[in-house]
Amino acid sequence: MDITLVEGDITAEQVDVVVNAANSSLLGGGGVDGAIHRRGGPAILAECRALRASRYGRGLPTGQAVATTAGDLPARWVVHTVGPVWSATEDRSPLLRDCYANSLAVADDLGAVTIAFPLISAGVYRWPVDDAVRQALSVLRAATPTNLTEARLVLFGPDTHATAKQIHATL
Question: The Macro domain covers which part of the protein (predicted)?
Answer without folding.
Answer: 1-171
